[in-house]
């Protein structure tokens, strides 16, 4: 944990904090320069997805209000909804106490998951079995314009 986040442990809402750029400098990114970002529907609290952000994606998200992630498979910035149309508009962003995880409160348009489901978290598991908790809202082939 950076010394800045250690100092923030005692901060109160009345305290003046450093500029956002200083906080982003103190964020603990992994070896690939990424931080996990959890997207949550702002009004219902539903957890929609987890993806990765690098500093560029985080800065773009804060600047534009449209959520942008870093796609590890594509090796580039990924603006949520650029191929599916299912965008996320940022309502608020918060770093955790260690500065190594991000929580995004978003307004999600349609499904957040590439499977066409509202949430990526639809495979429930117990000690003995798993089950699917939701149906796709949209057929993934339709979502991505891959009609057969």
Structure commentary:
- Homodimer.
- With 148 residues, the chain is an alpha+beta fold.
- It has one domain (3-110): Ubiquitin-like (UB roll) (Roll).
- Helix content is 18%, strand content 29%.
- The chain is built from 4 helices and 8 strands, in the order H-H-E-E-H-E-E-E-E-E-E-H.
- It has helices at residues 3-8, 20-26, 55-64, 140-143, and strands at 35-41, 47-53, 68-71, 76-79, 88-95, 102-108, 123-125, 130-132.
- The strands form 3 sheets. The chain has a 4-stranded mixed β-sheet, covered by helices on one side. A two-stranded antiparallel ribbon has the order 3-4.
- The longest helix is centred in the middle third of the chain and has 10 residues, at 55-64.
- The radius of gyration is 17 Å and the shape is globular.
- 21% of the residues are buried.
- The model has no long low-confidence stretch (mean pLDDT 93).
N-to-C span: 50 Å
Radius of gyration: 17 Å
Approximately how much beta-strand content do the residues carry?
25-35%
Q: Tally of extended strands? A: 8
Percent of residues in helices comes to 10-25%
SS field, number of helical segments: 4
- Name the CATH superfamily assignment: Phosphoribosyl-AMP cyclohydrolase
- Residue ranges: pLDDT <50 for 5 or more in a row? none
Tally of structural domains: 1
Given helix and strand content, the structural type is alpha+beta
CATH C-level class: Alpha Beta
Strand order of the largest sheet: 2-1-6-5
CATH topology: Ubiquitin-like (UB roll)
Note the main sheet.
4 strands, mixed
Enzyme class: hydrolase
GO cellular component, one term: cytoplasm
Family: In the C-terminal section; belongs to the PRA-PH family.
Cofactor: Mg(2+); Zn(2+)
């Amino acid at each position: 944990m950076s010394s800045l986040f250690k100092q923030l442990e005692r901060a109160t809402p009345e305290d003046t904090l450093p500029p956002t750029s200083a906080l982003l400098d103190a964020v603990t990114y992994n070896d690939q320069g990424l931080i996990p970002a959890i997207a949550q529907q702002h009004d219902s609290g539903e957890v929609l997805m987890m993806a990765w952000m690098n500093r560029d994606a985080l800065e773009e998200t804060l600047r534009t209000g449209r959520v942008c992630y870093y796609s590890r498979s594509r090796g580039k910035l990924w603006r949520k909804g650029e191929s599916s149309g299912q965008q996320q508009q940022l309502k608020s962003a918060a770093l955790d106490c260690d500065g190594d995880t991000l929580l995004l409160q978003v307004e999600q348009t349609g499904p957040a998951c590439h499977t066409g489901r509202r949430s990526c978290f639809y495979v429930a598991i117990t000690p003995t079995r798993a089950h699917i908790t939701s149906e796709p809202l949209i057929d993934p082939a339709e979502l991505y314009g891959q009609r057969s």
